[in-house]
Amino acid sequence: MKTVAARSPLECVTLCKTTPGCLSCNFYASNTSDNCDLNFRSMSSSINLQLQVMENATFYSIYNPRDCNDVEVNGLFTVDIAGFGEKVVYCDNGWVVVMRRYDNSFDFHRNWASYRDGFGDPNDQFWLGNDALHALTNQGDYSMQIDMKSCNGNYYFVKWSLFRINNEAANYVITDIIVDSYNTSTKYRLAEVLGWRFGTTDNPVGSCPQNHGGGWWFESCTRWQLTGYYPVGCSGTAGMKMAAITGNNCDNGCIIQSGTMKIRRNT
């Protein structure tokens, strides 16, 4: 929140509309200075510049964006996803962060319902939720990017120019995926997941979720996964990995210590 001076409610609203990331504002008519609070979160998406009386202030809700494209600051925001509704997400330079993981202190080996609904803290380690991810990727065309740090100490990224999944009834199968750019040694298996379904230990794809850990898109298991068993001591290739880093099935260089997965609407 940022507090500024405004001469009228209209000026307060105008300041909010022209301030990157401002989604609502409070105007205090009794104050002569510092009487306009610019908020980076909206109370509700069901009102548009509708007035509400709040403890000696008038509240103005501008809107809830449908994703992070129009949000110009980083942090938690409420978005209004078509066919889904409101969801608190972490915005990172216009990207909706889908998951974040950086150590072994948080458990990603969870059941189907947890991956469907999402778990964790969007400010910390978490999974957004497959229902929300499905709705997001079906309200437009979205790119996806994975940023990661390997056990070889280097940082890598892979970007797909199109990523889309189906709904729960179809097991969140990946319906569209197109490789765009990467700094891994090859694009080995980066698009192989097209047509693959999501699996967890209680809704498995063979023995893959049990063998690799977490929930992910599997077929003949997988060559890249951010939710697998965490590589304590950077050992073991059955969990958190990105085989394209080394250009083959996997060795120590492809094991991932930390990673984020994020999506952004193509404009």
From TrEMBL:
<dbReference type="InterPro" id="IPR014716">
    <property type="entry name" value="Fibrinogen_a/b/g_C_1"/>
</dbReference>
<dbReference type="Pfam" id="PF00147">
    <property type="entry name" value="Fibrinogen_C"/>
</dbReference>
<dbReference type="InterPro" id="IPR050373">
    <property type="entry name" value="Fibrinogen_C-term_domain"/>
</dbReference>
<feature type="domain" description="Fibrinogen C-terminal">
    <location>
        <begin position="59"/>
        <end position="267"/>
    </location>
</feature>
<dbReference type="InterPro" id="IPR036056">
    <property type="entry name" value="Fibrinogen-like_C"/>
</dbReference>
<protein>
    <submittedName>
        <fullName>Fibrinogen-like protein A</fullName>
    </submittedName>
</protein>
<dbReference type="InterPro" id="IPR002181">
    <property type="entry name" value="Fibrinogen_a/b/g_C_dom"/>
</dbReference>
<dbReference type="GO" id="GO:0005615">
    <property type="term" value="C:extracellular space"/>
</dbReference>
